Amino acid sequence: MEKNIAGLWNSGRAAVGGWLMLPDAVTAEIMASQGYDTITIDLQHGLVDYQKALAMLQAMNGSPSIPFARVPWLDPVLVMKLLDAGFLGIICPMINNQDEARRLASYVRYPPVGERSYGPARAGFILDPAYGGNANAMIQCLAMIETAEGYRKVEEIVAVEGIDGVYIGPIDLTLSLYGNDLPLGIDRQEPEMLEAIENILRAAQAAGKKAGIHCGTPEYAGRMVEMGFDLVSLSSDLWLFSTASKSILEATRRLTGGVEGDECQAAQSGASPY
Predict the structure, then answer these.
(1) pLDDT tens for residues 7-49?
(2) Catalytic-role residue among 30, 33, 45, 246
(3) 209 contacts 229 by C-beta, under 8 angstroms
(4) CATH of domain 5-269
(5) pLDDT tens digits for range 241-269
(6) pTM for the whole structure
(7) 97, 149 contact by CB (below 8 A)
(8) How many CB atoms lie within 10 A of CB 103?
(9) Residue 228 CA to chain centroid, in angstroms?
(10) Active site annotation includes 45
């Protein structure tokens, strides 16, 4: 598969993404070998810094998965360093308005579209000998819509040149819109949240932009693709490891006549930090 998600989208297929929160190159290598269309390394809520992200990116180099990074904040320094390292997609949290969207796009794009400084230390020889001229078209820039302000101003956000699409953070969006009136969780089922999700999707589509969302289950991801989403990311390496390890322990306890422990039940029942 070509390492450019635009080619996949142009074929009419939605992308299915994996998500990495653990700071480990071997985990990244394993996840990237599974066949995900994209792999996002999470530098916001994940346990990953720049150097770990670079090592994880290198471990994924033989995979056809397209490497994305979720940055911690709207920070030009880290955005540009991650792009210079060779990431092909940036997801930025908490984009609230047109001004913040313009700033994000400017950090991702070379002039004349943006103000990204030139110096693709690794990307220049790993991705494309003509990287400087092709980077603006190669890289995807997704603004996260996860605040009440961002939701109200989504139309102006998607109108910004250089913003390729939006990415919904379901938990923060729910918290921002409804506080503690609704429970924490990824796969929103409430009519009011489904309406909000659909409104964001329609705004992106009306502007000719893409829309992504984080999902907790394959069933919900399928539902979102049917709704029209272009990118659905599934769970995370941390969540998969913790739930699978607890599941196999509980099954073994039952088969061996042991008592099922509940020490980790609170951790397992809580929502993951997407």
Answers:
(1) 888 888 999 999 999 999 999 999 999 999 999 999 999 999 9
(2) 45
(3) no
(4) 3.20.20.60
(5) 999 999 999 999 999 987 655 544 444 44
(6) 0.93
(7) yes
(8) 18
(9) 17
(10) yes
